[in-house]
C-alpha cells in the first residue's frame, strides 16, 4: 500500500481544532498501520502561526518547500475572513495538482477564493454558507450536510465535521477496521453519514424561552412514538391549542408539526444507521406507525426510501479491530 503524504496548510487566525482534529485521526491511522500516512504542516513563510484561540502552532516548514501532497488539507478560522492573497495564490497554483483536496469549516472560503470550487457542490460552517454563496456564485453551496464530496474535492462543516470527514477518508484509504480503531481511541462516532444535517432537530430550532415550552421540546425528543398532536402537547403545556401553537412558533421559529416531523425523521435515521431493527419496528418506535408512512416521510425529506437509506449509510459488520499501539 503506497504511503500518502498529507499537507496541512497553516495561517494566522486558523482554528486549532480544524487542524488538530483531522491530524489526530490521520496520525492515529498511521500509528495503527505504520507507513500509511506522512503528515506535513506548512505556513506561507515557514514561521509559527497564532490560532484564533491564541495557541501558537509551529509548522514543519514553508509551503513552497513542502512535499507534493496526495491530500492537501485547508482548515478554517478567523484568518479566512480576509484571505491573504499570497495564500489564495499558492492554493490556486498548487491546489489543482493534489489528487485529493480537503477543506474543514471555513477553509472552503479559501478554496473558493482560489477558484477551486467553481462548478462544484460544497459546504462550510452553517454561519458562513450565505457568505460563500454570495461571494462565489459559481459554487453550489449546500448548507445542510456535515460534509460534501464532489469528485476529488471534499468540504466539511464546522470543527468536529472535519473529524467525521477524516474518518471517512481513512476508511476509504485503508478499511473500516482502522477507522473504527481510531474512532474508539478518540472516543467519537466511527462515521456520521456525510448527508447528516449540521444541526439536530433540537439545535436547528431555537430553544424556547419559557420553561413549559422547553419542557415540551424535551418531551418530543424523548417520546417520538407518543401522541405528539398539537392538542396533546398543548394540554401538557397547560395552554389552549391555539395559544400553544402560536407561542411555540414564536419562540422556536418553527411550528409544532414541523418540529415533530424533524425529530421523528432524525430518530428513524439513527435507528436505521445504528441498529438491526426491522423497518416496521423502526417506524413504530419513531412514531410513524406504519412502514408506508415512514417511507413517505423519507422520500419527501431525503429522496430515498428507508431500506435504501440503510443500505447506503449503515456499515456492514466487521471483525473487531486491533487496538492502536
UniProtKB/TrEMBL annotation:
Pfam families: DJ-1_PfpI (PF01965), HTH_18 (PF12833). Gene3D superfamilies: 3.40.50.880, Homeodomain-like. It comes from the Bacteria. Keywords: Transcription, Transcription regulation. CDD domains: GATase1_AraC_1. Residues 214-312 form the HTH araC/xylS-type domain. One of its GO terms (molecular function) is sequence-specific DNA binding. This is Transcriptional regulator. It comes from Streptomyces collinus (strain DSM 40733 / Tue 365).
Amino acid at each position: 500500500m503506497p504511503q500518502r503524504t498529507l499537507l496541512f496548510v497553516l495561517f494566522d487566525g486558523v482554528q486549532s481544532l480544524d487542524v488538530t482534529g483531522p491530524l489526530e485521526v490521520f496520525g492515529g491511522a498511521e500509528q495503527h498501520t505504520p507507513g500509511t500516512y506522512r503528515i506535513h504542516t506548512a505556513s506561507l513563510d515557514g514561521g509559527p502561526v497564532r490560532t484564533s484561540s491564541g495557541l501558537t502552532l509551529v509548522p514543519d516548514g514553508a509551503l513552497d518547500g513542502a512535499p507534493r501532497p496526495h491530500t492537501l488539507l485547508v482548515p478554517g478560522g478567523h484568518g479566512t475572513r480576509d484571505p491573504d492573497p499570497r495564500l489564495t495564490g499558492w492554493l490556486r497554483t498548487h491546489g489543482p495538482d493534489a489528487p485529493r483536496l480537503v477543506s474543514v469549516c471555513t477553509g472552503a472560503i479559501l478554496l473558493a477564493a482560489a477558484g477551486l470550487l467553481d462548478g462544484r457542490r460544497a459546504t462550510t460552517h452553517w454561519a458562513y454558507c450565505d457568505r460563500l454563496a454570495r461571494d462565489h456564485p459559481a459554487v453550489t453551496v449546500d448548507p445542510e450536510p456535515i460534509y460534501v464530496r464532489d469528485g476529488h474535492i471534499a468540504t466539511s462543516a464546522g470543527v468536529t465535521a472535519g473529524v467525521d470527514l477524516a474518518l471517512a477518508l481513512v476508511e476509504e484509504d485503508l478499511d473500516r477496521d482502522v477507522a473504527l480503531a481510531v474512532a474508539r481511541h478518540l472516543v467519537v462516532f466511527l462515521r456520521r453519514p456525510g448527508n447528516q444535517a449540521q444541526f439536530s432537530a433540537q439545535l436547528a430550532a431555537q430553544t424556547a424561552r419559557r420553561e413549559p415550552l422547553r419542557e415540551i421540546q424535551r418531551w418530543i425528543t424523548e417520546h417520538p412514538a407518543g401522541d405528539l398532536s398539537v392538542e396533546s402537547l398543548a394540554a401538557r403545556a397547560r395552554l389552549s391549542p391555539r395559544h400553544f401553537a402560536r407561542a411555540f412558533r414564536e419562540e422556536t421559529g418553527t411550528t409544532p408539526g414541523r418540529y415533530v416531523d424533524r425529530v421523528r425523521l432524525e430518530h428513524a435515521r439513527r435507528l436505521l444507521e445504528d441498529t438491526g431493527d426491522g423497518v416496521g419496528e423502526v417506524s413504530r418506535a419513531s412514531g410513524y406507525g406504519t412502514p408506508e408512512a415512514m417511507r413517505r416521510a423519507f422520500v419527501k425529506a431525503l429522496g430515498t426510501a428507508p431500506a435504501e437509506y440503510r443500505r447506503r449509510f449503515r456499515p456492514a459488520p466487521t471483525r473487531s479491530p486491533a487496538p492502536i499501539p
